[in-house]
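Input.
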Amino acid sequence: MKRSLFIGILFFILPCLIAKELKEEAAPLGIKMQIRDYVIPGPEVEAKPLSKESAIVLRIKSVYPHGKSFRYDFEYYGLEAGSFDLGDYLQSKNNKPMTEQPKLPVTFKSFLAPERITPNPPEDAELPRFIKYKHLLIFGAAFWLIGLLLLIFGARKKLNLLDPSTPELLSPAEILRPLVEAARKGKLGKEGQAKLERTLIIFWSQRMNISNESPSTALSKIKAHPEAAPLFEKLESWFHCPNPEEPSDLYALLKPYHEPKID
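Output.
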């Protein structure tokens, strides 16, 4: 019972205390002020639309149910100096009649003299004499240009320091040696054998100028050539012999292939 009585007394006293505080303290023009948890009896209200005659801009930030009433959070600021009532800027929502017009007196004051309409213009801020804005732009552009030149010349110098290593040209003998060595040891597979025979045929076809002849005719002429025949004979022996013979003289077999060097 006592608790209900206390809440009822607080319900009626709190709006009066808030209104008194707002009335006593004048707010500067254009500065947003807030009122929180203000209870208005009756149906929900809303802020009136802003018009040319409005001296106050009032917004309702939040609305909460409060028994048969509503509790509001207001935000407002003044456009004219003087005393006004925020209740005059409220209206019932959905055209419902207001049970009681709330009284929320507020006061706004201007810090300008009565004859002044606009505030003083802000003074131009000056940099020290040795740091003008124009000088900053010039220094910034020069610094950027120097950095760009350093990057360009640094990259060129780094490229010049790199050793332009050109791939060493290999002779046909150097290309053929690992294949022939594998064939002699019986470790050259079918693909390796085909690659070795193809390389030899291309080499001798170009040297003997018989590239335009049929493969069978060209192969017969190549095997009949006194310099080409020894290696072809050894390859046939190595490819078809399950137990390869003792190491042969690879240098002698590859001697015709030492020149010219190819890429």
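The longest helix spans residues 133-161.
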